[in-house]
Design goal:
Number of strands: 46
Helix content: under 10%
Oligomer: single chain
Structural class: mainly beta
Number of helices: 6
Distance between the termini: 102 Å
CATH topology of the domain at 422-614: Immunoglobulin-like
Low-confidence stretches: 3-17, 478-488, 616-628
Shape: elongated
Radius of gyration: 36 Å
Largest sheet: 9 strands, parallel
Mean pLDDT: 85
């Protein structure tokens, strides 16, 4: 009987502990109103102060729910004896006190006073059970570390009249996924306010946010994009604001008032593309330091300097968009370890290149330096480069200066050639394009500097060089030196017979990307001649030429002076007119070889030889090229493995002329 009474009493005590306790109290008297310190839910009406919060945090260790909606926090001046902050401290009215509920790990629901205006330092720090917090419309300030390590918090909405979020206010909130900062007035965000919120992936920044403090979103690994609301007044992004975060996209065109990017602001991010608008006037060091996935970069032409470490380790950037026309100062380690560059152009206004600025450019083959006077250099600017094997091209009147300048003099110093100036007249114009076309299609070398015909710098002369000249003439911003990209496109012959000794070969192209030019050589039996070629309507604005070059009976070259693309993605491209000295038969073939297509960025796409059956309808073998730059193995024709698991765009770089097997396909390196 006694055992049953004991169990009943224990059960009754448990039930009482889960029941809500509601009290009406006056400031400093809460401890006298509550007899059950083990209660899990508490509602307080009336007035409370810092002493009452001390009682709650020290004594009500099982508390899960705290409702202060109808409570008013009044001011209190601490003394040396009340176990609050040492000495005298003023706890303001309508403010959650300093570390008021810090460390209450069982607390999961809090309803704040409806007239609350501030949350003081660390008020909820370490409250790892809180899953949501509704901030009252009266709130003006969230203090430093206010919600530090509230690891169950999933959403935060900072709206209403709030004008300040303190440093580290929500740091280490590891399950926070959604954040909205959209108050009615101006607001500042303190340093590291949301740092190390590893699950944060949805952030909206309202129009009135004027600054992001240092390290605001550092280490936020899931954060890929920031949503800026229309009319953004953001002026400043602080140091390390997005450092080592997951940011892949950041469109600063939506922040027209932004003037400054702090040091290391976007360092070690996952940005793939980045455009710095002209309205950003100030950059600090290391802006994009080791953002190793960055492949496309746009900097304004007005930018006059590259800060120290700004692009160090950004090894995927195509071309040299960081060398803007007005560049004057290239800082220490500015493009350190961008090892993929083979050619560097130093703009005309550069007067200083900092210490180790270009260290690690191990594949560098040529430098074109435009300044008349050799720029001053810091220490070990070219560390890791063998200058005795690198060409340095300068203006003729600058030759003596560079040959006498420390570090510059170690290169193979020579007179610069103007890119695209095929006829060496000092200009790049239509005459160069005509000369290039005549050389390519007809083999005419008169008035041409053969050392300048490879305008793209890809090691050969092809139709992409004509595209490059017109790009220069038309003022188009150029890509990096072209790479061979493999893709899936079908080129087929419709092979229409018109007469026993004459035929039209209609060639159709089904393409997946846009082309602006193409070329191929045509090899025919001795009894067949090519009478000409006609473009279809897909080639509107293009010019087509046939001629004899490099001991090839027929070379066909087609390009657009305006770098227009061919219309559409499928259908008839051109018609070849042929004639024969004898009747044509099903055994008659012509061969297309050196089939090159070029886009308006001067990239070259090509395939091996293709045989075309003249009589009847026949399909030319599919040009099989991969869409993606997948890793491949490279073998020689004897089956010896030369390179393993290398990107297809780099597979044949540096190999001597010959035939190789790349990813299971035959590739000719000339």
């Amino acid at each position: 009987m006694g055992k049953k009474v004991f169990l009943l009493a224990l059960l009754l005590a448990t039930v009482l502990h889960v029941q809500a306790v509601t009290v009406t109290s006056t400031a400093g008297k809460l401890s006298t109103k509550i007899t059950d310190h083990g209660a899990t839910a508490l509602t307080v009406n009336g007035t409370i102060d810092a002493r009452d919060f001390l009682f709650i945090s020290d004594e009500m260790y099982n508390l899960k729910t705290l409702n202060l909606t109808n409570a008013t926090i009044v001011a209190y001046n601490s003394t040396l004896t009340d176990r609050l902050l040492p000495g005298e401290y003023h706890y303001a009215a309508n403010t959650m006190p300093f570390c008021a509920l810090a460390g209450m790990v069982k607390l999961n629901t809090v309803n704040l006073p409806s007239n609350l205006t501030a949350i003081d330092y660390g008020a909820f720090a370490g409250c790892s059970g809180i899953t949501a917090i509704n901030l009252p419309s009266s709130l003006l300030t969230i203090g430093d570390d206010a919600f530090n390590s509230c690891t169950s918090l999933t959403q935060v909405s900072i709206v209403g009249a709030i004008n300040h979020v303190g440093s580290k206010a929500f740091i280490h909130c590891s399950n926070l996924t959604t954040l909205v900062i959209n108050p009615t007035g101006k607001i500042t965000i303190g340093d590291e306010a949301f740092a190390d919120c590893k699950m944060l992936n949805n952030v909206t920044i309202g129009a009135t946010v004027t600054s992001l403090g240092n390290g605001t979103f550092t280490e936020c690994k899931a954060l890929k994009k920031i949503n800026f609301m229309p009319g953004s007044k953001l002026e400043d992004i602080g140091d390390m604001a997005f450092y080592h975060s997951g940011i892949e996209e950041l469109d600063l065109e939506y922040t027209p008032h932004l003037k400054h990017l702090g040091a290391w602001a976007l360092a070690r991010t996952k940005l793939k593309e980045f455009t710095l608008p002209a309205h950003v006037k100030s950059l600090d060091e290391g802006t994009l330091f080791y953002s190793y996935q960055l492949s496309k970069l746009e900097l304004p032409s007005t930018l006059t300097y590259l800060p120290d470490y700004m692009l160090a380790g950004c090894n995927q950037i195509k071309g040299m968009p960081f060398m803007t026309h007005n560049m004057g100062n290239i800082g220490d380690f500015a493009i350190f370890n961008q090892s993929q560059h083979r050619n560097i152009t130093v703009p005309q206004r550069v007067y200083y290149i900092g210490t180790h600025a270009m260290s690690g450019l191990k594949h560098l083959q040529e430098i074109t330096s435009e300044p008349l006077q050799a720029p001053e250099l810091g220490n070990n600017v070219w560390a890791g480069i063998n200058p005795s094997q690198v060409k340095l091209s300068v203006k003729e009147e600058s030759l003596d200066d560079y040959q006498a300048a420390l570090q510059w003099q170690d290169f193979l110093v020579g007179v610069a050639q103007l890119r695209g100036d095929v006829n060496s007249d000092g200009y790049v114009n239509i005459l160069d394009a005509i000369s290039e076309r005549r050389f390519l299609a007809e083999g005419i070398t008169e008035g041409i500097n053969l050392n300048r015909t490879d305008v793209t710098g890809n090691g050969r002369t092809d139709v992409a060089d004509i595209v490059a000249i017109y790009n220069i003439i038309n003022g188009v911003r150029l890509a990096d030196h072209p790479i061979n990209l493999w893709f899936d496109d079908d080129l087929e012959s419709l092979g229409t017979k018109t007469a026993p000794r004459k035929a039209k070969i209609e060639i159709s192209l089904n393409n997946t990307i846009n082309y602006t030019a193409f070329q191929f050589d045509i090899i025919t039996p001795s009894h067949i001649t090519i009478d000409g070629a006609t473009l279809s309507s897909r080639g509107l604005g293009h010019e087509i030429y046939t001629g004899q070059a490099e001991n090839v009976p027929y070379r066909l070259v087609c390009f657009s002076p305006a770098s227009d693309d061919f219309e559409g993605y499928n259908g008839l491209l051109l018609t070849l007119n042929i004639s024969s000295t004898q009747n044509l038969s099903n055994n008659d073939y012509i061969t297309l070889r050196r089939i090159y297509f070029a886009d308006n960025q001067e990239n070259v796409y090509y395939d091996n030889n293709i045989n075309v059956n003249i009589i009847g309808i026949s399909a030319i073998d599919t040009i099989t090229i991969d869409n993606e730059d997948q890793p491949v193995d490279v073998y020689n024709t004897q089956g010896q493995l030369l390179r393993q698991n290398i990107s297809s765009s780099q597979a044949t770089n540096g190999l001597p002329a010959g035939i190789y097997i790349v990813g299971g396909k035959k590739v000719i390196v000339r």
